[in-house]
Design a protein that fits this description.
Largest sheet: none
Number of helices: 2
Helix content: 55-70%
Mean pLDDT: 76
Distance between the termini: 85 Å
Number of strands: 0
Structural class: mainly alpha
Length: 64
């Protein structure tokens, strides 16, 4: 009978796909936020527009 030595192989996680995924998530989050911000800025309903306006002022962003 032969005695076979086994090797423990440790898999190293690939960093490139994780970075691409995080980058994609950041881009999508930024695009969603910009869409919500600009949609609320140009909406005709005054209550939504005023809420977005007040939020911009509370965050320190100039809007006019």
């Amino acid at each position: 009978m032969q005695n076979h030595a086994t090797q423990n192989v440790v898999e190293v996680p690939q960093v490139a796909p994780m970075l691409a995924s995080k980058g994609l998530q950041l881009v999508c989050a930024f695009a969603l936020g910009a869409t919500v911000l600009f949609a609320a800025a140009f909406v005709q309903t005054s209550s939504v527009h005023n809420a977005a306006h007040d939020l911009r002022h509370s965050q320190g962003f100039p809007c006019h």
